[in-house]
Write a structure and sequence with these properties.
415 residues; mainly alpha; 0% strand; globular; disordered N terminus
Length: 415
Amino acid sequence: MMRAALKGRPVGAMQAHWRRGEGARRLLAAPSNLQRDPLRRDRSDGIDVLRALFALWVVLAHLIPWSVFVQGPEAVPWWIARGARLVAAVFQPVGELHPAVLGFIVLSGYCIHRAGLRLPGAGAMTGYGVRRFFRIVPLYYIAIVAGLVGFALAMRQAPTAAAALSGTQGIDLGCIAAKALVLPAFYPGVYACSFLGNAPLATVMVEIVLYLLYAAAFAGLVWRGRERVVWYACGGLFLASLAMLGQGVGGGFYGWWQNGSIFGYLPYWWLGVAFVNPAFSRACAGRLWWIVIAWVALGLVLALTSPPAVLALAELRKLCFALGVGILIVAMDNARLAGLGPLALIGRAGYGLYAIHAPLTYTLAIYGLPWWAVLTTNVLAGLVIHVVIERPLIDLGRLVRGRLAPPALAVPAAR
């Protein structure tokens, strides 16, 4: 485009043109692929159903073994316990990140960009920041407090079980500050602080940082014509992680990298962003069978007694799973669903359910509630949190955004 504009001009005129900065301004003004991605802010029942399935998967992944740990092997029907062990063996043969959490990360990137930033219009960044703040931050701090309360109650009943299930040995003000400031997302030395009565909040902590980095990437790179740097950085980080994991790392560091590190999550979150682009999602969907075959083949290799570079192979398998999740997300986003209203409602309450389930689960299990009652209580608590806390905060965010930032203009959708 620029070549056509300058074609036929004398060399001196072209040099003067660039010296005046007109060429650079035109390049910066050309929308990148991220700026041309379709912008949607409608509610998708398919996305909510998928969010519900991921949330319930995580809840059950904790509820089943915790109930058995506290109440004995008869606490859960044998076929449920055996099924949970089988799922863990298939999806986490070397203790890698839980697949539902990985699915949440890909889904988060997709949903944020689906309704996120596009052109650098007036109030675009302010509107994005207000929406994200009211959507995630207040409930994050409420869930931190809930974790402290749950840990205190559980310690009164069964100190050993409470410490084991919560991953918390005691309340420390320094750890509370580190968790409140999301420091464990960057520094493995305070990773244990991310547990502190509510270990799943480590994922929410990283998501908060990912939201900030998304805005920084648009302001510092995408809107300056340097979108490729984003993808090079994600690809480079993934390759560097393969090299590092291929050499083998300590268990504590690997746990942080997998479960609470911005560096371990960032490539997969931005992969979710990429699936908003129709061309990318179609290209991946056309290769679905190859992705599935690669995932199965890597799983068979990991099932060997001593496979080489085992953690790097697990990371490649995670990438295959994340690609499959991205394809599923796009399909569910465009699906017309009937009869799944209750599941979609649970999905709308998915953040509250995820944020509160750990302290609620181990506390109720320690106090003797059967597993099905704990599951029911978790779902009801998530729905109450959604109605009483989340929705009013989202409405407040819309009100504040409307006063501080007018709606940003969208750009034509990519084809």
